[in-house]
Amino acid sequence: MVYQGTLSRKRELLVHILFWILTAYFTFVKNPIHARILVPDLFYTTYVIVFVFTFYFHYFIVMKQVFKSFRWVKLLAGLFVSYLFFTGARWLTEQVITGMLFNQTNYINPTFINYMLDNLHYSSMPIIFSSFLWLGIYFIRLLEYNKAILEENKNTEIKFLKAQINPHFIFNTLNNIYSMVYFQSDKSLTAIEKLSQVMRFTTYESQKEKVRLADEINYIQAYIELEQLRHQETGFIHFTSKVENEHIEIPPYILSPLVENALKHGATSGESPIEITLTADNQQLIFKTSNEIGTQKKDKLGGIGLDNLKKRLQIHYPDGHQLNLTRDNNRFTAELLIQLR
C-alpha cells in the first residue's frame, strides 16, 4: 500500500477507529435498548488482547510481505504464520502469564493436537478480519493508482510535446551547425549526428512507457556534447557513469530533467565544472548533478518541471525513490535514488 491517493494515513487510521468501534459495539453491547453490556472476564480479556496483537501482526507484517510479489503459496504460508503467532501468543498469555499472576490457566493439561485444533477456530476471526480490512484499503488505493496511471498516460504526450526540449536549444544548435558547415569545420558531422540522436529520442523513445537505461544515457550524452559544441568548450561538464546492466528499463525523461536544469542554470566554467554521475545495478540507481549557480540565475528546475518530475516519480516508484535538492552557498546539488526492485 505505497500509493496513498485520497486514502491517506490519517484517513486509514480513521477507518481503523471506526472498525474497532463497530466491533466493540457488536461484541459487548448485547441489548442496546436496555443497556445490557457484556463485562469480559479474565480469559475473555486475554483473548481480546491476543486478538488485537494478531490482527495487527497480520495486517502490518504478513499481508504486506505477501503482496510484495503475490503468490498463493506465500498467502497460505502467511496465514499459517499468523495462526502460529495467535496460538503462541495465547499460550504465553493464558497458560503462562495468567498462571503466574492469577494462578489460573484457560486450558487444563491440554494435548498439543487439541490445543492447536481449538485455536485454529479462535484464530480465524482476527486473521480474516485483518485480511479483509487490509484488502479493502489496498484495492481502494490500487483503483486510485490505476486511475492516476491512466490520467498520467493521457497527459504525458502533450506534456512531452511542450517540454521535451527547449526550442531555443534547437535553434541555437542549428545555427552552430550552419556555421560549422559554412566554415567547413570537422565537428559539423558530429554535431549533426548528436542532434539526430536527440531528436530521435524526443520523437520516438519518449512515447514509450519505458526505455532502456542505455537509451537515456545516450540522449544525455548527446545533449551534453551539443551544449559543449554550442559553448565551444569541452571542460565545463564532467559526466561519469558506472552501469552494470544497461538493459534496465526506466520511464523516459526521469534523469534528463536534472541534466537540463544543471546546464540551464549552471555556470559554464572549466574552473568549476558541472558534475554529473550515474551508478546503477539491478537493485538501485543513483543519479546526481552538481553545479555552481550561474550569475543572475535562479536554480529552479526547468524541463518538464520539478512538480511534474515528482509526480511521475510518485506514480512509477511510489515507495522506491528519493529526490534530494540542496543548495550549499553557491552550489546546487540534485540527487535521485531509485529502487529498481
UniProtKB/TrEMBL annotation:
**Record keywords:** Kinase, Membrane, Transferase, Transmembrane, Transmembrane helix
Q: Which Pfam families match?
A: His_kinase (PF06580)
Superkingdom of origin organism: Bacteria
Annotated TM spans? 12-30, 42-61, 73-92, 120-140
Q: Which GO terms describe its molecular function?
A: phosphorelay sensor kinase activity
Question: What residue stretches are annotated with the Signal transduction histidine kinase internal region domain?
Answer: 157-233
Tell me a GO cellular component.
membrane
| Record protein name field | Histidine kinase
| Membrane recorded as keyword | yes
